[in-house]
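It is worth pausing here to work through a concrete case rather than discussing structure prediction in the abstract. The textbook approach is simple: state the sequence, then state the predicted structure, then interpret. We follow exactly that order.
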Amino acid sequence: MSNDEQKDFGRRVAFLRKRLGYSQSELARKISRSETWLSQVERGVRRLDRMSVLEKLADALDVPVTELAPAQSLIATRSDKPAPASTLALTLASNSALRAVVEMPEPADLTDVEERTDRAWELTHASRYEETAELLVELVADIEPLVRQTPEPDRVRALTAKSRIYLAAAGALSKLGDNGAAWVAIDRASAAAEELDEPLMMAEAAFRLAIAFQAARRYDLALQVAGTAAEAIETLAVTDDAAPPAVAIFGALHLQLAVAAARSGEAEDAYRHLNTARSAAERIGEGRNDYDTEFGPANVNLHEVAVAVALGDAGRALRVAEHADQSTLSAERRARLLIDVAAANQQLRRTTEVVATLTTAAEIAPEQIANHNRARELISDLLHERAYDDDVRALAELTRGG
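Step two, the predicted structure:
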């Protein structure tokens, strides 16, 4: 920023702060900074161009980064959607259901659709979004006529496949930053689950909706949807003879509650939900993937890292990550853990470790690093500090390609 831009930026911060009724000390506390630091920012005497700090300040002021700092040219702000997101969004906007009713095309083979749906989830867990999008385009076109033409008792299988197809689309869209399209997909999955009167499928849809709300930084909505769903299925999950899938969905919902609480600055609630999830994970152990949640002890540890990072406790995040068993986690989950590890290292100003961690994550799941907002913010910060570094430039090229 130039000196004039810094002063304009400071005035904008002060205006937004006063609009929300915060004192300087209150806003500074929300972003884990001193009142002196914030005063210098508002007076335009402190330069502020780290994307991670801008994002945290924008979040506290309840505005997009692009509104808070419109003059900044940063990797993390992109006007275009990744190609797979556009492909999926256009598919959801198409009238596949209407075409199925009017044209009554020959239905696809149900077993083949189920197998391809399993494959779509495998690709989603691997963060291979381009392949996921290509497959889901076909599956959405196939499932609508199939659901309408499949007689009982196989109709239950068809509706289950429909819910899983749309939830796979929602999972990919949330990762790719198209939250509006993700909500559409979740709504269609929820309708299928409701038609079946299947509470755990309905709870899974709530779990996916909480993830989409978190991606949109609507932590209040994430807490509401995950909290009410967890409360609704609690009686199915806490008894001694509870089925493992019910325990897994219940625990997965509490993981979302933990992260949303942490991002809202509610540390006590965050760790309370995390402990509830840990108890659930200990009951079912590793090696399961109920409702495509990957829920288990390893995933709880991954979320503990995310919670600690959100609360600014980098030391705890790194200690947990160091001992976390990643062997049972998918590529998507392992890369997500490394993004949080990189964020923790950034909080400690360990730039070399940030570069190394993100480079490893990019080797595991390049499409996720190219499109994940936190990864893009970290890489943007690295460019300000180490534009000469070949590894940083390689990471930046990856985000430009994403």
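Step three, interpretation. Confidence is low (pLDDT under 50) at residues 73-79. The chain has four domains: 3-68, 82-196, 198-329, 338-402.
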